[in-house]
Write a structure and sequence with these properties.
The complex is a heterodimer.
Chain A lengths: L3 E4 L2 E5 L4 E7 L5 E7 L5 E7 L5 E4 L2 E6 L4 E6 L8 E9 L5 E4 L3 E6 L1
Parallel strand pairs in A: 2-11
Antiparallel strand pairs in A: 1-3, 3-8, 4-5, 4-9, 6-7, 7-8, 9-10, 9-11
Chain B lengths: L4 E3 L2 E4 L5 E6 L6 E7 L6 E7 L2 E4 L8 E4 L6 E5 L8 E8 L9 E2 L3 E5 L1
Parallel strand pairs in B: 2-11
Antiparallel strand pairs in B: 1-3, 3-8, 4-5, 4-9, 5-6, 7-8, 9-10, 9-11
Classes of the chains: A mainly beta, B mainly beta.
């Protein structure tokens, strides 16, 4: 059974500093996704990573994928308050009918 | 392009009552998913439809949960009878095989509180 683990579970950030969220998964995957969820809201897609070595960047967020290590990272550069949210990674297995398995989430709070 | 629509947005019921949620996916999306997200956790897949057929319902508590997608478009998820532990947000998502990224698009969710 596929397991997806994120760490840390909670991240208190200071504005202007850099941080990294880690996502480990237990079996070979076909796609890896990062989502953002604000309190009381649905999931907003941030990145889709398709292959080993993939790197995507949007604003202060950068996601990368190492399929050999079964590891994805979400790097936050110069954190700002607007980035406070919960971040989820999710892994897709095509052979399982494109089933998406989510990590437990990382709750991010950016303090001034 | 309109997104995934869900209703109601909020529902409060007493335990042992029944409840139904409705989802309208993005037009043309053949695959529809229902997820349960308990507070503080990641979403968990309950059931996946491809058109009007079930692809995966291995995590659906079939003694109380049922879902259907009769015409391959809209879907309903029903809980009968509800338990306290069913309190969660129920998310509907849809996707299309034409998307190489297999990305799923999520609706706003229905927040269910069972008292």
């Amino acid at each position: 059974e596929l397991k997806v683990e994120q760490n840390p579970l909670f991240l208190s950030m200071q504005e202007g500093k850099n941080y990294t969220i880690y996502c480990n998964y237990s079996t070979t995957s076909d796609r890896l996704y990062w989502y953002r969820q604000d309190p009381g809201k649905s999931l907003e897609s941030l990145f889709v990573l398709l292959s080993n070595g993939a790197v995507k960047q949007e604003g202060r967020l950068m996601a990368s994928l190492d399929t050999k290590a079964r590891l994805s990272t979400l790097h936050i550069t110069a954190a700002v308050h607007d980035l406070s949210a919960t971040y989820f990674c999710a892994v897709l297995i095509k052979a399982a009918g494109n089933k998406l398995t989510f990590g437990g989430g990382t709750r991010v709070l950016v303090k001034p | 392009e309109a997104g995934v629509a869900q209703s109601p947005r909020y529902k409060i019921i007493e335990k042992r009552q029944s409840v139904a949620f409705w989802c309208n996916p993005i037009s043309g999306h053949a695959t529809l998913y229902w997820y349960q997200q308990i507070l503080g956790q990641g979403p968990k897949l309950l059931i996946q439809f491809q058109n009007n057929g079930v692809v995966d319902d291995s995590q659906l508590p079939k003694d109380r949960f049922s879902a259907e997608r009769l015409k391959g478009v809209d879907s309903t998820l029903k809980i009968q009878p509800a338990k306290l532990e069913d309190s969660a947000v129920y998310l509907c998502a849809s996707s299309t095989v034409r998307d190489r990224a297999y990305e799923q698009y999520f609706g706003p969710g229905t927040r269910l509180t069972v008292t």
